[in-house]
Design goal:
Oligomer: single chain
CATH topology of the largest domain: Growth Hormone, Chain: A
Number of strands: 0
CATH superfamily of the largest domain: MFS general substrate transporter like domains
CATH class of the largest domain: Mainly Alpha
Order of helices and strands: HHHHHHHHHHHHHHHH
Structural class: mainly alpha
Largest sheet: none
């Protein structure tokens, strides 16, 4: 029923193509955020209605993690990625032509679903390299993911402001066509590792949490540090808009450029994981993250301290993610897509919890509350990492 070994090698060109496609695809989850005021003006939307647009993209992404990601183990991945690319083009085209909010929400939901291309490419690449190469490979892929997340808002804001919000979705569709064709042409053809029907596949996905205790531990560790990360980013704009900073939205957005330090962390940690091991590396970078939060808390209102803290936190969180995914993908090579889907779903839910907790903490206790909640999440993550076997 299963065959673990993959015959194809991952060339530098294919790795670069995958990394670029991941950046372009992940960006779709964040394109709508900077252009929300433009959409509001055209459709006459209130704040609650407007907030549903990025939310529906995230709902679609979460849906795909549970119900689409497992298909990577039973369908030729190149074919599945091709289907998702077509879906992304179609959904983006519907967004361009949307006459009202209802149609736009349907479009962004399926844009979120099709962004699952990212979570097909990551396990695909991991399956094409040896265990010694996984760290460096995942580091490169995470670099693409980070760039896509961080630069998506800047690109979308510029295009939307210059050419209108619909042009952002034209750009999305164009990139989807480009990378869809390139991936179809150059991705190797893998042999599916599981011979299961769809319902069996979904059932087996949920059963993996029972079968592999380590998956629960790694997922909880990742969920808690990603919660801490989102506590920071959900409240940062609010924090710097108050005295003594008094930054406007555009100035607050520049902190995303500082976060590019996370790209360096993701790339370099891929080399360290083979030397130090995932468990030790994760523990080290979580200490760095805690230090970053402490610095921002001790020197409240200090711009230099805030910048240093953000650099340390982003470096640490993306480094931890690479190290964690190396051990996640080593659990069961025959179920990498299903395992990755479960792990990323837990990771995503952790981030959502962190965002809610962060906003609440800031409302009650201002920035000291944010720092304390973040450190609590880091401590919980460290606890689960401590009990992990490797």
């Amino acid at each position: 029923m299963t065959q673990v070994k993959q015959p194809q090698a991952l060339t530098r060109f294919i790795l670069l193509l995958m990394t670029s496609a991941i950046a372009a695809t992940a960006a779709n989850l964040y394109y709508s955020q900077p252009i929300l005021p433009l959409i509001a003006d055209e459709f006459n939307l209130a704040g609650s209605e407007l907030g549903s647009i990025p939310a529906f993209a995230q709902f679609g992404y979460a849906f795909a993690l549970l119900f689409i990601s497992p298909l990577g183990d039973s369908i030729v991945r190149r074919r599945l990625i091709g289907f998702l690319s077509c879906l992304l083009v179609l959904a983006s085209a519907v967004a361009v032509l949307s006459p009202n909010l209802t149609v736009l929400l349907c479009a962004v939901f399926f844009i979120g679903v099709s962004a699952n291309i990212t979570q097909q490419l990551i396990p695909f690449a991991a399956s094409l390299v040896s265990s010694e190469q996984k760290g460096a490979t995942l580091g490169t892929l995470m670099m693409g993911l980070t760039i896509g997340i961080l630069l998506s808002r800047t690109l979308s804001g510029f295009v939307g402001e210059q050419f209108g919000w619909r042009s952002v979705f034209i750009m999305s569709a164009s990139l989807a066509v480009l990378f869809g064709v390139l991936l179809r042409m150059y991705l190797p053809t893998n042999k599916p590792l599981a011979n299961l029907g769809y319902l069996q596949l979904i059932k087996s996905t949920l059963a993996l949490l029972k079968t592999h205790k380590s998956l629960k531990i790694y997922t909880l560790a990742g969920a808690f540090w990603f919660a801490a990360f989102n506590v920071l980013w959900a409240t940062l704009a609010i924090y710097v808009s108050d005295a003594p900073f008094n930054y406007n939205a555009q100035e607050a957005g520049l902190f995303g450029v500082i976060a590019l330090a996370g790209v360096i962390g993701a790339k370099s940690s891929g080399k360290w994981v083979n030397t130090l091991g995932s468990k030790k590396l994760v523990m080290m970078v979580l200490l760095i993250a805690a230090l970053g939060f402490v610095i921002t808390g001790v020197f409240i209102g200090n711009l230099i301290a805030l910048i240093v803290g953000i650099i340390l936190i982003d470096f640490a969180i993306f480094s931890a993610q690479v190290a964690n995914q190396v051990r996640v993908f080593s659990i069961n090579p025959a179920a990498q897509s299903r395992i990755n889907g479960l792990y990323m779903l837990g990771y995503y839910l952790g981030g959502a919890i962190g965002s809610v907790a962060g906003v609440k903490a800031y409302a009650l206790y201002q920035w000291p509350g944010v720092v304390l909640v973040s450190i609590l999440f880091i401590l919980l993550s460290s606890l689960f990492n401590f009990v992990a076997k490797k």
